[in-house]
Specification:
single chain; mainly alpha
Length: 106
Amino acid sequence: MGLKVLKTKLRYLLSLRRQTFNLLVFMKVKQDYSEIKKEALELGQLQREMALAFQQQLLSTVQKLQGLTDNQSLSKNSTEATDAAIESLVEQSNVAENLTNKLKKL
């Protein structure tokens, strides 16, 4: 074999090596992109769930607070409405804390 043939084969092998490396890099980037896309979808779903849970709890709290204005006299119903409103506010705080903890896990 001549020197020219050896140089040609060497160039070919180096070219194959670069192509293999580029393919491996591409596959790694593709895998990373897929993982990031999956995480983004999960985060989007969690955000929707969080917003819905927060809105539902907020509506419940507002309704219970409105019950306080409906029961103006200091009666048993007024005390129950006050307790329900306080409990709802505590639950609202718990919902926010739970949602924050879910985000931290991601």
